[in-house]
Amino acid sequence: MELQCVSTTIFVFLLLPIAVTSSAETSDNNGCCGGVPGVPGSPGSPGSLGSPGRDGRDGRDGTKGEKGDRGEAGARGLKGGSGKIGPQGPNGAMGIQGSKGDLGGKGDKGEATQQLNWKQCVWKRDDGKDAGLIQECRFKKEHGHTALYVAYAGSLRIIGSHRCSRWHFTFNDRECTGPMTIDAVDFTSRSNDIHRHRQVEGYCENIPAGDVRVGFHIGKCVGYTLADGYTGWNSVSRIIIAEMSPAQQ
User: Fold this and answer.
1) pLDDT by residue (tens digit) across 152-202?
2) β-strand pairing of 228-231 with 147-159
3) Domain 117-244 - what CATH class?
4) Which residue from 178, 186, 237 is spatially nearest to 208, judged by alpha carbons?
């Protein structure tokens, strides 16, 4: 509710002396006898409050103010997580060839590589032995972790009907056990006297370093009658022995 303030005007009436004019003076006023002016009336009551006027029109935009001072730097934000790996970019252009570098210093003297330790035993002899040692060859084994490669090359033959002979190597009078024996067999069902060049070879491991007596023998096959054997007829026979490291095998 709005409060209305009503102003009250207070009139002060001054009693002024009224001059009495003569009839002659009165008659000069338009020739009529005028009366005395009346007392002003009292003010009327204020009227009721009018209805609100319409909203005024929007004013024009004010002029742009001057640029303010730069604010203080904000606090550093937290480190973001790793983004996904982007696709591989195209290959770049080939770069310019660099200049030749300085000559390097002389390197240290390298160690000598291990020389192959090997031996060959050769003979020419017709040996008609059916069982026993045919030839022995001595060898100096330098290392314990190496293997011995042995091979026989020469002519062999047997005679007999359903007979079998076996040639094999021994090392210090024992057959190889690392991993298996080194041998070959020949079986015949007829008594044909045919001599052929044959080769028997293999590797033997677990032989300690030192002097090794490598023997080549002939004997019977298990379960068969001993045949009439012949070794080295009319040809050169040879035994080859070589010490081999695991990388050379």
Assistant:
1) 999 999 999 999 999 999 999 999 999 999 999 999 988 888 999 999 999
2) antiparallel
3) mainly beta
4) 178
Q: In the block, which residue shows the tokens 């060959």? A: 120
Q: Please name which of 77, 246, 231 lies closest in space to residue 149, comparing C-alpha atoms.
A: 246
Residue spans of beta strands (DSSP E) within the chain = 117-123, 132-141, 147-159, 163-171, 174-175, 183-188, 196-204, 210-220, 228-231, 237-244
Cα separation, 144 vs 139, in Å, equals 14
Asked if residues 24 and 16 have their Cβ atoms less than 8 Å apart, the reply is no
Domain ranges of the chain: 117-244
pLDDT tens figures, 203-225: 999 999 999 999 999 999 999 99
DSSP annotation of 27 reads H
* C-alpha distance across the termini of the chain, in Å: 118
Give the 3-state secondary structure of residue 26: helix
Structure tokens at 44: 């009327």
Say whether the peptide bond before residue 179 is cis (omega within 30 degrees of 0). yes
Give SS3 for 23. helix
DSSP state of 226: B
Residue ranges of alpha helices (H) inside 88-227 are none
Give the predicted TM-score (pTM) of the model: 0.55
Instruction: For residues 217 and 166, give the distance between their C-alpha atoms in angstroms, rounded to a whole number.
Output: 8
Residues contacting 210, CB < 8 A, separation 6+? 140, 141
